Amino acid sequence: MKIILMGYMGSGKSTLGKALANAKNIPFIDLDDYIAERENSSIPHIFKTKGEIYFRKKEAEYLQELLQNPNDFVLALGGGSPCFGNNISIIKTADATSIYLKYQPKNLALRLIKEKTHRPMITDINDDELEDFIRKHLFERNPFYMQADCLITMDNLSEDESLRLLLDKLANEPII
């Protein structure tokens, strides 16, 4: 079983992905970490030295590579991964279950304010403008996120509740 977690930054893809992988006793892979390792460079450095177009091409290449691997794993995508190139098609045609971890913009903003220093995309955005920034991004990205096989509304759930809900959904959903 391959499980793909998608959603906006701060939606818990990595945290929940690690917990899910542990519960399923399968490896966890963060796509950005995988890209950085394969490229022997950090994501910010790739963007700075080679540009976003290069990064997005490599992102699609490594996504395809991972999803063609016969082994089971939980894969956390970058927030924008499903939205570029033909990545959503790669995800939809893979032998995997994709899950959208959905939050309301207000709750994402509250979560991300605490992490701004570690999130280059939002570091320079004023706290009072962050929710509108997220709302705009979600408007653009939701058509891609909504193509996931399964949606889990994460608002007001603890990490343990999120994991239980995700495990329950996976147990009850037909796995592709």
Automatic annotation (TrEMBL):
Pfam families linked to this entry: SKI
Swiss-Prot/TrEMBL cofactor(s): Mg(2+)
Residues forming coiled coils: none
Binding site for Mg(2+): S14
Binding site for ATP: G10, S11, G12, K13, S14, T15, R119
Compartment list: Cytoplasm
Keywords attached to this entry: Amino-acid biosynthesis, Aromatic amino acid biosynthesis, ATP-binding, Cytoplasm, Kinase, Magnesium, Metal-binding, Nucleotide-binding, Transferase
Enzyme class: transferase
Record pathway: Metabolic intermediate biosynthesis; chorismate biosynthesis; chorismate from D-erythrose 4-phosphate and phosphoenolpyruvate: step 5/7
Cofactor note as given: Binds 1 Mg(2+) ion per subunit.
EC annotation from Swiss-Prot or TrEMBL: 2.7.1.71
Keyword Transferase: yes
Reactions listed under catalytic activity: shikimate + ATP = 3-phosphoshikimate + ADP + H(+)
Superkingdom as given in the UniProt entry: Bacteria
Residues that, per the record, bind substrate: D32, R56, G79, R141
Gene3D superfamilies: P-loop containing nucleotide triphosphate hydrolases
Keyword S-adenosyl-L-methionine: no
Known function: Catalyzes the specific phosphorylation of the 3-hydroxyl group of shikimic acid using ATP as a cosubstrate.
Record's subunit section: Monomer.
PANTHER family noted in UniProt: SHIKIMATE KINASE (PTHR21087), SHIKIMATE KINASE 1, CHLOROPLASTIC (PTHR21087:SF16)
Family, per entry: Belongs to the shikimate kinase family.
Protein name: Shikimate kinase
